[in-house]
Each structure stands twice: as C-alpha cells, then as structure tokens.
UniProtKB/TrEMBL annotation:
The protein, known as: Methylglyoxal synthase
Name of one Pfam family that matches: MGS
UniProt source species: Devosia litorisediminis
Binding-site positions, substrate: H9, K13, T35, G36, T37, T38, S55, G56, H88
CC annotations in GO: cytosol
GO molecular function: methylglyoxal synthase activity
Positions of the catalytic residues: D61
NCBIfam families registered for this protein in UniProt: MGSA (TIGR00160), PRK05234.1 (NF003559)
Record has Lyase as a keyword: yes
One of the GO biological process terms: methylglyoxal biosynthetic process
Catalyses which reaction(s): dihydroxyacetone phosphate = methylglyoxal + phosphate
UniProt enzyme class: lyase
Domain MGS-like: 1-120
C-alpha cells in the first residue's frame, strides 16, 4: 500500500477529480492524503477516504513536504497549472523540490499520474 499525496491548483482541481474517479478502484488500494480543498473535492467525487491537510496556501503544501521529508509519503500527484501565476509559488517550488530531493515519485499531469498509478 502506497501513501499518495493529492493536490491540484484551482484550475486543475476538476481534472484531478475526474482522474481520481476514473481510477477509484486502484486508488482505493492505497492511503490517500490531500490538501484541504483538493482532498475534500476528491472525497465528494469518489467517496474515497482522504486524510485532509490544510489548504495549500495555508500550509497544506508544507505539510505534504514534511511528510515527504519524514518518509511518510511515497507518491505525490500534483496537477500543476503552468499558465496561471500562483500566490504561493514558493510553497509549490519547495514541495516539488522535496519530492525530487527525496526521490519520491511525482506526477504533475494526467499522463504521468497514469504511469505512476500503473506502476503501483
């Protein structure tokens, strides 16, 4: 069972929810964590249990980063919106930096999320 972090920028939340619903069976085999709004939306869309952290801009991104640094997260699925400026861009960069530093599988779009989930 992998521990999977789920997060998406505002303009990508719908896309992540559709993806999660499509992969509900496979995701149900794993422990899921999500930032506040994203996690709540995934629960609504799928009925899957998701451990909720704070909203991304209010510390949820850092909570996921801490889980990575402490070895408590195996996979990060983060649907990033590359076309919109993010007010908490430093948090986003820190989170993706930690995923890279600690060699955690990190998917930033649907194609890589599909590949990561197929690997699990």
């Amino acid at each position: 069972m992998a521990k999977i972090g789920l997060v998406a920028h505002d303009d990508k939340k719908d896309e992540l929810c559709v993806w999660a619903a499509r992969h509900k069976r496979k995701l149900s085999e794993h422990q899921l964590w999500g930032t506040g709004t994203t996690g709540s939306r995934i629960i609504e869309a799928t009925g899957l249990p998701v451990g909720l952290l704070k909203s991304g801009p209010l510390g949820g991104d850092q909570q996921l980063g801490a889980m990575i640094a402490e070895g408590r997260l195996d996979v990060l699925i983060f649907f990033i919106d590359p076309l919109s400026a993010q007010p908490h861009d430093v948090d986003v960069k820190a989170l993706t930096r930690l995923a890279t530093l600690y060699d955690v599988m990190c998917a930033n779009n649907e194609a890589t999320a599909n590949a990561v989930l197929a690997y699990l």
